[in-house]
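Contributing new records

If you add data, match the layout below exactly. Sequence lines come first and carry their own label; structure lines follow with theirs. Keep one chain per record. Anything else will be rejected by the validation script.
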Amino acid sequence: MPLAGDLSVLQRKLNRLRPDVVFNQYDDVVHGALYEMRVAAFIRMLGYPMTGSPALGLGLSRYKYMSLSLLKGAGLPVPPSTAIIERLSDIGDHKWTFPLIVHAAQEHAGIGLARDSVVETKSALKEKAREILRVYKQPALVQHFLKGREFNVGLLGGRKVQVLPLAEVDYSRLPRSIPPIMSYAAKWVETSVEYRRTEVICPARVDAEMAALIGRTAVKAFRAVGGWGYGRVDIRLDEDGLPVILEVNCNPCLDSGMGLARSGEAAGISYPQLLQAIVKAAFEGPPYDIQLPIFIPGNSALARGR
């Protein structure tokens, strides 16, 4: 069901169809739009069970500095020097440990990540932060750049979360002049060196003890931000070889043969079985999610009290 600007159209369609569950695949296409959490909240306000994470988890997936601050407060490992830059003058307020990686603070899918996103000097940091503030109209997220191995941890399930076989992002074939990061080019530009020389290995070649530690860290992070149903946690190893959380992705890409589906296949879970597990988790519902629709079916107005 396509979704345009008028949510009342969605409301009328859902009230006419009366589905048992809504398979939520809404994805923002405008930089910094942050409507994923609002659409999810609207669906729940209509009273329908919904696949994937609730609005809070989706919001934290996009407000990266907020989610990283929450994870740090919960005692989970996040990169050193994690800070948000809302004005260029903020750069002088911190003691930085270079190299740093500079992100657009509210984007996903590699948007805003390029070859110049890893910086070695304060002047380069300032230039990249200026670009993000100007082009993407949002703050810059700055972190110490970890050079260790990078893993994508697929998670599946509701009350009981299954850690899928780890996927490792292999940057070993990249030229030294290109930083080993999952940039926009590495994800989407098929003609780029980054895309052609970055490989995802699934299942990853990692010993059982480390795999278990990475899996436990990912599940704790996913639960901490309110994730549900399915997700992906991106992790890098630090200088001591310990897992550090880069970000938590609630409702990640579900394309067949990619990402979560690829990890599912490595676990012997077919694509239809993966989707069935996601729907099952939707019926289980996130904990403490009270069924309390505040929109009256067939009426575009809010339910009114006295």
